[in-house]
Design brief:
It is a single chain. The protein has 524 residues and is of the alpha/beta class. It folds into three domains: 152 residues, Cobalamin-binding domain (Rossmann fold); 246 residues, Aldolase class I (TIM Barrel, Alpha-Beta Barrel); 88 residues, Orthogonal Bundle (Arc Repressor Mutant, subunit A), CATH 1.10.10. 43% of the residues lie in helices and 18% in strands. Strands 2-1-3-4-5-6-7 form a seven-stranded mixed β-sheet, with helices on both faces. Strands 8-11-12-13-14-15 form a six-stranded parallel β-sheet. Helix 1 packs parallel to helix 6, helix 2 crosses helix 3 and helix 20 packs across helix 21. The longest helix is centred in the last third of the chain and has 28 residues. The radius of gyration is 24 Å and the shape is globular.
Length: 524
Amino acid sequence: MRIAIIAPPYPLEEIPSPPLGVTYVAAAFEAAGAEVKIFDYIVSAYTEENLKKQLESFQPDVVGATSVTMNFYDAQQILRDVKNYNSEIITIMGGPHVSFTAVDTLRQYPEIDLIVIGEGEDTIAEITSVLGQKSKWHDIRGIAYRHDGEIIITGKRDFIVDIDRIHLPARHLLPISRYRALGFPVSIITGRGCPYSCIFCLGRKMVGAKTRRRKSSLVLDEIEKIIGYGFERINIADDLFTSDKERVREICTGIKERSLKFKWSAFARVDTVNQEIFDQMAEAGCDSVSFGVETGNPEMLKRIKKGIKLEQVNSAVKMCQQSGMIAHESFIIGLPGETKVTLEETERFAKSTKAIYGYHYLAPFPGTTVREKIQDYDLEILTDNWSLYDANDAIVKTSALLPQDMRDFGARYDEEVETGWRKMLKGYHEGTNTPDDNMHVEGHWRMNLTYQLLKGDLIEKCGFIEPVLFQGSKDSALQELCRRIINCTNADFRVVDNTIRDFAGRGYLSSNVSDQGCLWFWST
């Protein structure tokens, strides 16, 4: 059985990690005996032609895709293109969006044959051997599919109690050099499950209310493996990492005992931390912690069932900063009952903590309490266009606020950020910046160039250098590659030259030199 897993397009501006769900799914299929490839369209361009080439090369029996709400349409369209290429290929989709819209999805999108609902590893272990035998699907719990014009849901599958038996994500199937060039942190999870009931979050429903934690030694093994791929930064993505103090101590001690050299960040709830934990994390290389605060209004914190108090936010931020780490807070615009007064309270509170902070807009995803019980809240959802569920625009209104009111508030924050950027850019050109500020400016330009290289497939388009243009000199071939990329992007010469030479020096880019020419390509 040959199975291709799609990593659908995702905006690089949203700072995606190497896809965790995709690699967990790929590992589960590998463990079930399948030959697996990942078709990654996060760090490369998606076109029907690119898909066709990969399908012709691999000839999969099954193509699966995972998606969140905002890129569901992209994933669905890719599976439609798969069916157009070969209608006999079995198509599967999983992930949070389709887990809560399974019936509607199967009714509206005939290109999707089967949906895996919720936590998928055990479902994959059972179904892989019978994917080609639809008559046996009804025996597999945790899936939905069509049969004789009816939607069949086979029943809920229990959560995996011992998550230590889940195979490590198959990151070896990713285009590692592209993700290293992108430079974003690699996310890991050290546990599953969430006992909290935040009305805007899917966590409790997707991974269960009971916290299931991995052994510290296995977490450390995974960290060691990630570092072995050449990544330099890791983010611990589960919110409850800091809730088990002894386990945090074990992991931080293990990082030092194994002499693991890397920088890392973590998410944390403000009611699960103390100074000792932060000090241990900082000593083990953690340099920043992100807290979901959501609002600066105490009544709204109760309404959304966040389960924290503003006093705990202040305390957590101070302790984090005391340990020498950066504290970051995130807030949501457009929660139920939002008014201009509550937004102003949030703004005042965010500034008062002296932490770095940012906003995103409420996206009432399928499966969230706020969506399923919308009648209980002062909130109206204005669209089911899933592509707008990226938390970058207002798609709800309250009795006191229209979407434009919310946008006006967000625009004020954006203008503050933009003003700071323009000041930094001016200082760069005038020579009045600090070295750190200049590094920030150049890093921004380099990142934008990297986006263009990846999403435009520019190395593939520009990478073959004819012999007459480099005359056997690899450095001359590299110069010609830089020249072509400048022509494609209009980027500054110094940015292109520094970036491309750095990528080649670090081994992200490789070359083959022959009598026919020099070919530059992304390393595996």
